Amino acid sequence: MTVAVTAASGHLGRLTVHALLDRGVPAADIVAGARSPEKIADLAALGVRVREADYDRPDTLAGAFAGVDRLLLISASEVGIRVPQHTNAVNAAVAAGVSLVAYTSAPYADTTDLPIAPEHKATEEVIRASGVPFTFLRNCWYVENYTANLATALQHGAILGSAGDGKVSAAPRADFAAAAAAVLAGDGHANTVYELGGDQPFTLAELAAEVSRQSGRQVVYRDLPPAEYAGALVAAGLPDGYAQLLAASDVSLKEGRLLVETGDLGRLIGRPTTPLSESVAAGLAGLS
């Protein structure tokens, strides 16, 4: 059985390839696809089959998916054009005779008003309509969305947001990658939807408290009105549209849209999800 992972040069894709190897999947049975294959030469060195796979160029997808049994379609990063990109990939998968398409979606994608959800919902509809068996991996926030910014938090003594006391079921990318690998390498996942989130949801105030505890430096959570938060993000160098999206997503967090309490992630990976304390420790270690 051959399994393929798209966007393998990205964080989640690369981790998923390594998770497959950790599960004992032979490197020769893994296809790693990337827009720029040279960026995953390290995977090729492990014996993984590296192929060009560009969502915008269907001809590359046909070659990338040839002989593939199960495919992990990792959602593209360019908000606004993802549905046609994903459609190209789904069409190529069907043409190649892929027997399962697993797709990284968003929490409760078909019912939520989370700002990023519409493209995920539309992609799920494309996959369902294709007739190919599917698994929807509805990933909650990656905890690295927060821990990657610890240097700024320590510098200013604050984590900014518009999330109020809302809880987010964030977990490390490695946990979500392990879940994807479990689906690709295992059985019984066809036509299944998994709502994936960490076992221990936390507020941003709790995140700030954990950073303070481990760093020995006071960091507080500063809750801002959405417009003010978006303005702070723009001042920090983010494009206005992206800043507005992040602020609106925080409002969704405040309203409970990122609280996932199904336990699906822990069950798929066969262990408790990684606790916030370990993620913060890893983030702080990366600063030294």
TrEMBL record:
Domain NAD(P)-binding stretches: 8-185
Q: Which CDD domains does the entry link to? A: TMR_SDR_a (cd05269)
Q: What is the lineage of its organism?
A: Bacteria, Bacillati, Actinomycetota, Actinomycetes, Micromonosporales
Listed Pfam families:
NAD_binding_10
- Domain of life of the organism in this record? Bacteria
Q: Which Gene3D superfamilies match?
A: NAD(P)-binding Rossmann-like Domain, UDP-galactose 4-epimerase, domain 1
Q: What is this protein called?
A: NAD(P)-dependent oxidoreductase
